[in-house]
Specification:
CATH class of chain A: Mainly Alpha
CATH topology of chain A: Cytochrome-c3 Hydrogenase, chain B
Helix content of chain A: 40-55%
CATH superfamily of the largest domain in chain B: NADH:ubiquinone oxidoreductase-like, 20kDa subunit
Largest interface: A-B, 68 and 61 residues
CATH architecture of the largest domain in chain B: 3-Layer(aba) Sandwich
Strand order of the largest sheet of chain A: 1-14-2-3
Number of helices of chain A: 14
Oligomer: heterodimer
Number of domains of chain B: 2
CATH superfamily of chain A: Cytochrome-c3 Hydrogenase, chain B
CATH class of the largest domain in chain B: Alpha Beta
Order of helices and strands of chain B: EHHEEHEHHEHHHHHH
CATH architecture of chain A: Orthogonal Bundle
Number of helices of chain B: 11
Number of strands of chain A: 14
Structural class of chain B: alpha/beta
Helix content of chain B: 25-40%
Strand content of chain B: 5-15%
Structural class of chain A: alpha+beta
Chain lengths: 429, 259
């Protein structure tokens, strides 16, 4: 009978500060807590009293890794509120900007945060001693994404060019043309990445998850779509709060989001992939199959393959957008404020990101609600760990602890977003 | 001759978005070179390996908002020979210092149903309010090229260069048409350079995310905003009360209009 206690002080390679407490008593996992002790920053409170035009710049500061996602959900929510539809070229530029963020964020996670777990390294720099060319390729791939964000947004972190209604300045086609060469290189690199991560060894682990993601009529989802799941959910974004509820748990500074009807659910690359496989490009589908994935993948450890497939998709989509891009007449659609409440959701690299705002007649924010991906995954991460640890009690402590960290990193948790550090305490007694 | 020991680098995070420390990982072309020049001893976002201090160079991202962090920064300082504070949060308190203008309990109540589980201080404060900071690199986020310059200066044993002029100077060097002439309020005249005058280059007014420059005159700028551009008192407060809300020059100016 196992009655032990293992403590790993900090779980690394995640964005933010958290801890993990796991207790095992008489071979039974008695407690799993993903503790998020990232100091709260109160964005929803200080958004009150700000102008609706400030929301994209302010909310981007929630997260340095996915600022574009915050900007996108904010501008879409404001535009839904103010009855603004942006013209085609602006819509295309937003997808292009999101492609850049997915490429940089997935590149960071695949090569620097997650792959070292599969190959047994402490970090990517140590990994680079044995795999220099692969790490260099990963860094260059990440840079292609960052360059895309920089050209469109002015800088890679907290871009300055996004506004409600569109952009401050729309690029000329000739500004984007130089990106084509690097994106063509990135397409080859993404194909190699899918093959590389597809060759990793994955722990056997599958659960009956409820996956939740956006689904759009024609496209793999970035900015628009209905909120759907593999268990029958199919709703407009406006109805999100009728179906999902955020709850506060004592051990976390992140609010925990659940489906009212069925509890914890799963957002992010794996959810998007499972609900939108048919919307991927033929090459992305082909590469996923070559790496051993079907149209549905239930093993969260294989999310690293899905991230590589999504990176390939984003590169191809960026190439397609640049090829057909025509500069809009105006960089932004006109907007004028009114008293209204509206919401929007977009697909951050880590999953569904929901924003809702209530405005007064002058466009001053009266109320804001933001549901980031990590608070939606928190319940599923805890449920995964409970199952996972229960099946592996015979593993030596160090290996089990490392695999628990790896399990958490499957979700690429962004604890800065969720309110940051993961400290793992594995207790057997 | 024995090889010189590589300096030990540590990176710490307090309340922030992670963006400033991420800037180090965003140095895609230089990261492996940096890793060759320093021992990355403690950088939790990037590595499981956590080497104990003392550290030769410490980078700090984030502001102090909890009693726990207030204690940690003291230990970090004791373990660090040279400490650089990165960004708006570490150098002024960041956007989360908006709490300093109100009662934080109202903020907690607005976000959390069970406020008793939330541990936070009344104010968000810069690192220099707690310990000695050897160099302040400003920006929200910092400019990664400036971070590289700070690292190079450290490795060469010279003090980093700190330019004190305003965004306006960089903007002129870029050859931009002044956005204020086109009617857009711009904080460029009072804001510290470092971004390369990005916002005006993208046809919008600077929103002050590198903080106040040395000896700024925000009152003169406010008068211009109000008289020439018709800006309301409420919008003047918002203009100065954002990412560097708690920096003294901007703080005084927003308070002057917050009646």
């Amino acid at each position: 009978m196992t009655n032990k206690r293992i403590t790993v002080k900090y779980l690394a390679r995640v964005e933010g500060e958290g801890a993990l407490n796991i207790q095992i008593k008489d071979d039974v996992v008695t407690r799993v807590q993903l503790k998020i002790f990232e100091p709260p920053r109160f964005f929803e409170a200080f958004l009150k009293g700000r102008n609706f035009t400030e929301a994209p710049d302010i909310t981007s500061r929630i997260c340095g890794i996915c600022p574009v996602a915050y900007q996108m959900s904010a501008v879409h929510a404001m535009e839904a509120a103010l009855g603004v539809t942006v013209p085609g070229p602006i819509r295309a530029l937003r997808r292009l900007l999101y492609c850049g963020e997915w490429i940089e964020s997935h590149g960071l996670h695949i090569f620097m945060l997650h792959a070292p777990d599969f190959l047994g390294y402490q970090d990517a720099i140590q990994m680079a001693q044995d795999h220099p060319d692969t790490v260099k390729m990963g860094l260059r791939l990440k840079k292609v994404g960052n360059n895309l964000v920089t050209v469109l947004g002015g800088r890679e972190i907290h871009p300055i060019n996004v506004r409600v209604g569109g952009f401050y300045k729309a690029p000329n086609p000739r500004d984007l043309a130089p990106l084509t060469e690097s994106l063509k290189w990135a397409r080859e690199a993404a194909v190699k990445t899918v093959r590389w991560v597809g060759g990793f060894t994955f722990p056997e682990f599958k659960q009956d998850y409820e996956f939740v993601a956006l689904r759009h009529g024609q496209e793999y989802p970035f900015n628009e779509g209905r909120v759907v799941s593999n268990k029958g959910l199919d709703i407009a974004v406006q109805d999100y709060e009728q179906h999902f509820v955020e709850e506060q748990v004592p051990h976390s500074h992140a609010l925990n989001s659940n489906l009212k009807a069925r509890g914890p659910y799963f957002v992010g690359p794996l959810a998007r992939y499972n609900l939108n496989f048919d919307r991927l490009t033929p090459l992305a589908q082909e590469m996923a199959r070559e790496a051993g994935l079907g149209p549905v993948c239930l093993n969260p450890f294989q999310s690293i393959i899905v991230r590589a497939v999504e990176t390939l998709y984003a590169v191809e989509e960026a190439l397609a957008i640049i090829e057909t891009y025509e500069k809009p007449d105006q960089p932004a659609a006109p907007v004028s404020p009114r008293a209204v409440t509206a919401c929007a959701a977009t697909e951050a690299p880590r999953g569904l990101l929901y924003h809702r705002y209530r405005l007064d007649a002058d466009g001053v924010i009266l109320e804001a609600k933001i549901v980031p991906p990590t608070s939606q995954n928190q319940g599923t991460i805890e449920a995964d760990l409970r199952q996972f640890v229960g099946q592996r009690l015979d593993l030596p402590d160090e290996k089990l602890t490392w695999q628990c960290e790896q399990m958490v990193r499957n979700y690429d948790p962004c604890i800065s977003c969720a309110t940051h550090f993961l400290k793992v305490n594995l207790e057997r007694r | 001759m024995a090889p010189k020991r590589k300096p030990k680098l540590s990176v710490w995070k307090f309340a922030s978005c992670d963006g400033c420390q991420l800037s180090l990982l965003d140095c895609e072309d230089e990261l492996l070179t940096i890793a060759g020049a320093v021992e990355i001893a403690y950088f939790v976002e990037a590595s499981r390996a956590m080497v104990k201090g003392p550290y030769d160079l410490t980078l700090v991202d984030g502001s102090i908002t909890t009693a726990h962090d207030a204690a940690v920064i003291q230990r970090v300082r004791r373990a660090s020979k040279y400490l650089v504070a990165l960004g708006a949060c570490a150098n002024s308190g960041g956007i989360q210092a908006l709490r300093n203008f109100t009662d934080v309990n109202d903020f907690i109540d607005a976000v959390y149903a069970k406020p008793q589980h939330i541990k936070t201080l009344k104010e968000s404060t810069p690192i220099a309010a707690h310990v000695k900071v050897d160099f302040a690199l400003n920006g929200c986020p910092i400019n990664k090229h400036q971070l590289l310059a700070v690292l190079s200066a450290f490795l060469q044993g010279r003090p980093p260069m700190a330019r004190s002029h305003s965004v306006c100077v960089d903007c002129k060097l870029q050859g931009n048409v002044c956005v204020m002439v086109m009617g857009a309020p711009c904080l460029g005249p009072v804001t510290h350079a470092g971004c390369g005058a990005l916002c005006p280059t993208y046809h919008r007014g600077c929103y002050g995310c590198y903080g106040p420059k040395e000896t700024p005159n925000p009152a003169a700028l406010s008068a211009w905003f109000s008289q020439r551009l018709g800006m309301s008192e409420a919008n003047l407060v918002r203009a100065f009360r954002a990412f560097y809300a708690n920096a003294p020059a901007f703080r005084q100016e927003s308070e002057a209009h917050d009646k």
